Amino acid sequence: MSATDTHLAELGDVLRDCGLHCVYQPFIDLDTGTVLAYEALLRGPSGTRWESPMVLLDAARAEGRLAELELASLRSSLTDAGALAQGRPVTLFVNLEPSTLTQRLDIVLGALAERAPHVQVVVEITERALAADPAGMLAGAERLRAAGCAIAVDDVGAQPESLAFIPLLRPEVVKLDLQLLRTVKDPATVTVAGAVRAYAEQSGAEVVAEGIETQDDLTRALVLGATLGQGWLWGRGERGFAPSAFRPERFTARPIGPALHATPYGLVGPRHRVRHAPKHLLIPVSKTLELMAVQAAVPPVLLAAFEHARYFRPSTVQDYTELAAKLPFIGVLGVDMPASPAPGVRGSALAVQDPLASEWTVVVLGGHTSAALIARDMGDAGSDGDREFEFVVTYDRELVTAAAHSLVGRLTAG
């Protein structure tokens, strides 16, 4: 047997023989010093090279068994929380890759359904794959929330452009990348922290600083706006659960709700005054929103619905190609819209009967930016520029976010 075959056989043995276990690292309330939750950290058989979670994850990823490994870890941690906590209520963070969330969600939900009633779960995912399938991620997160699980996003700030996806996914917990703790005076770090702080203030999300090892680190975490901390200052991870304060309201799942299946115009409420105007007068508004996007300190996402692909004209293709080079994500929708209508732009085709097919919307949403043009075609004849629309221009973050959700929910995976 070759060394590779032996390597794979050993991985299979670890998975088959339940050689996996988890240790548990606490989350500390930075204001009170109280333990509020624990994160399950995967380990393999003690005293072997498989004890390292990185060795396990790298091998499982290479052999297409990552979901199998994560599900084994999930079941192990849920069993521990049910037994080792000795009946005390506990909040448990578990880790899942985005691919497991979107491709094996039914199995994940099955495992979660078997958890003990005193175990509250927060599902933690990394931010690095949000752009690959934002619609799938939103749909998966909603099903987890329906099962009572809040969502945490890990490594936020590792790639500053990923901050644009935080308002879209709307996690209940944001975990700052641990390197930010070492670069508190860097303007880029201050920008990331400011965007996360703005999101947390608007949404009520918890902000976690990882890697806290000293009192100085703790002070830096407070400067970054963290409400919770993790790190060796409080422990490297133990097999058991020490007594903790149970504050379920701080980790309550908050579903996005019906916005995922609505249309932007359908979300306009009575406090948003609707006006009428021809398209040629609204085009400058659209271009102003696009300019706002590229000038933002924290680049936002740009989402647009064009009714039909024929309105995504060559001049628009050129404009959006230039925008895609500067923004982290652009998604456009319309009847007959191709999957790649312009370089770097994600396209998604609408059904003719979709109500969105009669709407024209441009949404800019990011850490510090929220604006939208939301318009509905009034169906009159005539030249394209003279077509009349009912419209709203809004900077209301709640409405802009809901409009973004309604568009992202229709995007196909890249």
From TrEMBL:
InterPro entries tied to this protein: Cyclic-di-GMP_PDE-like (IPR050706), DICT_dom (IPR019278), EAL_dom (IPR001633), EAL_sf (IPR035919)
Entry-linked CDD domains: EAL (cd01948)
SUPFAM superfamilies tied to this protein: EAL domain-like
Record Gene3D superfamilies: EAL domain
EAL domain ranges (all copies): 4-251
Pfam family, one: EAL
UniProt xrefs under PANTHER family: CYCLIC DI-GMP PHOSPHODIESTERASE PDEF, SIGNALING PROTEIN
Protein name in UniProt: EAL domain-containing protein
Organism field: Winogradskya humida
